[in-house]
Design a protein that fits this description.
- This protein is mostly helical.
- Helix content is 77%, strand content 0%.
């Protein structure tokens, strides 16, 4: 499962809750914003911060049985790949601080 699929799943859950007359939680918006920020990040410290925030959210979703262990593992691998890719962009651009 990808982060985008998890966002979609969160949005569907939000819609389902709203149809029941419940207040939406907005977790999909939070993950969507963090996901955008991790891809567009230009400083190492901000990149690590966003990575940890998404990582924690994923474990929270797993801990509440919203995603399975397999989905968690797949998404963490994707997240790590995005982190490495963004880190390389920061390094190549000469921005941020040294590793």
């Amino acid at each position: 499962m990808t982060i985008e699929k998890i966002i979609e799943k969160l949005e569907n859950e939000c819609d389902r809750q709203m149809k029941k007359g419940r207040e939406p939680r907005g977790a999909s918006n939070v993950v969507k914003e963090w996901y955008k920020e991790i891809r567009d990040c230009d400083k190492y410290d901000k990149l690590d911060e966003r990575y940890n925030m998404i990582f924690g959210m994923l474990y929270g979703l797993y801990g509440t049985y919203f995603i399975t262990e397999t989905e968690l593992d797949e998404t963490i691998k994707e997240l790590f790949g995005i982190w490495k890719e963004t880190q390389k962009k920061i390094f190549d651009a000469g921005k941020g601080e040294s590793l």
